[in-house]
Amino acid sequence: MSSYSIFPEDLDHVLNHTRDLWEDLRGQRLFLTGGTGFFGMWLVETFLWANEKLRLNAEAVVLSRNPDAFVNRAPHLASNRAISYHVGDVRQFAFPQGTFSHVIHAATEADSQIMKADPLQVFDVNVDGTRRVLEFARQSGVQRFLFTSSGAVYGRQPPDLTRIPEDYTGGPDPIDTQSTYAVAGEAKRAAESLCALYSRQFGLETVIARCFTFVGPHLSLDGKYAVGNFIRDVMGGGPIRVSGDGTPVRSYLDAVDLTIWLWTILLRGSPRRAYNVGSAFPISIAGLAELVAQQVSPRCAVHIAAQPDPARPVQRYVPDVTRATSELKLDETVDLVSAVRRTIAWHRALAG
User: Fold this and answer.
1) Which of 53, 60, 133, 251 is deepest in the core (most CB within 10 A)?
2) Nearest to 25 by CA among 266, 249, 255
3) The whole model's pTM is what?
4) What is the C-alpha to C-alpha distance for residues 43 and 129, in angstroms, rounded to an integer?
5) Of the candidates 75, 273, 266, which has an alpha carbon nearest to the alpha carbon of residue 165?
6) Could you tell me whether strands 249-250 and 283-284 are parallel, antiparallel, or unpaired per DSSP bridges?
7) Is the predicted pLDDT of residue 1 greater than 70, yes or no?
């Protein structure tokens, strides 16, 4: 690895697919929330890479509750003069001084334990936090505002709908408070409405990225994500353990493509418009486990806990990305096998 914590070839890959976008940020100031998360680390590092390579003379201010922890996690960022940290909670932070041209609001409550123990906090971080960041944007002269939402806004995907489009009118059950997925989905829906209202009332150009599932360097292996669990298992020598019956269907977009898509949506997406962000290529959880198992030699064993029930509809979570591909000319440039291999390699390099 270089002084950056992402492989240089990945940073170059993002830059090569976004090179024409960066002029919009030349000499500008960007405000970013959620900078310590999976999305945030990719956005910060690719911003700094482009800033250096293209001599943009741009700056980024990253909101963080604990900047010291962020710097300890990514010490190479501490000495970069193009980035600074603003201490605060997304729900009540004091507004930094000066004007800003762009905001990326990627902060969310992702801790699985907090989501189970305190769903109101999940709701507040998403809704009150979004309102606070929108108000900051309004007062700071911001031109463009990207909100990273979630495919959870659609609720449970009908089993006969292979890919879910942005104009699907379903949604989570608003009184299903036992499901953190439903709570998070309702919170994201409310936050999206706030973005639309600020756009209509104040002219702020808000765009929305409805994000699905991803894989790549910086992905946590702590138990929240199936693909992260499987990579953790295979790195530990196996077996890979699938807790259910393996039939749910997901799709996984590589972090490189995720980052390309987010920068493109921020800088080229139509205002007051949502874009699905994810892979259009479905795979079952059992199939994913097998794919990950095949990336090591000898092949890792896969243990599936339960037998499928033929009478139960298959659970799907797969986006229709026609809008992003047709309007913004976005595409998937990294296949899933390559993405899994690179994620394993990155975690091994991180472990030394």
Assistant:
1) 133
2) 266
3) 0.95
4) 19
5) 273
6) antiparallel
7) no
pLDDT digits (tens, 9 = 90+) for 203-227: 999 999 999 999 999 998 987 789 9
Bridge-partner residues for 60, per DSSP?
30, 83
What is the distance between the alpha carbons of residues 163 and 322, in angstroms, rounded to a whole number?
10
Burial class (CB in 10 A: 0-12, 13-18, 19+), 250: buried
* 303 vs 301: CA distance, rounded Å: 7
Which of these, 76, 86, 84, 68, lies nearest to 49 by C-alpha position?
Answer: 76
47 by DSSP, 3-state: which? helix
The per-residue DSSP string of 119-168 comes to HHHHHHHHHHHHHHHHHHHHHTT-SEEEEEEEGGGG-SBPTT-SSB-TT-
Give the C-alpha distances (Å, rounded to integers) separating 42 from 47, 53, 64, 157: 8, 16, 16, 28
Tokens 């991180």, residue located? 350
**CA dist., res. 277 & res. 152, Å (int):** 12
Q: Is 190 helix (H, G, I), strand (E, B) or coil?
A: helix
102 forms beta bridges with 30, 144
- Model confidence band, residue 4 (pLDDT cutoffs 50, 70, 90): low
Distance CA 352, CA 350 (A): 5
Using the Cα atoms of residue 76, residue 78, residue 81 and residue 86 in order, give the sign of their dihedral.
positive
Query: For residue range 83-102, what is the model confidence (pLDDT) as tens digits?
Result: 999 999 999 999 999 999 99
Contact status, residue 307 vs residue 198, Cβ threshold 8 Å: no
Contact 43, 106 (CB under 8 A): yes
Report DSSP letters for 66-118, one per residue.
Answer: -HHHHHHH-GGGTT-TTEEEEE--TTTPPPPSS--SEEEE------HHHHHH-
Lowest mean pLDDT among 73-82, 112-121, 129-138, 279-288: 112-121
Q: What is the 3-state secondary structure (H, E, C) of 275-340?
A: EEECCCCCEEHHHHHHHHHCCCCCCCCEEECCCCCCCCCCCEECECCHHHHHHCCCCCCCCHHHHH
Q: Say how many residues make up the chain.
A: 352
d(CA 77, CA 65): 16
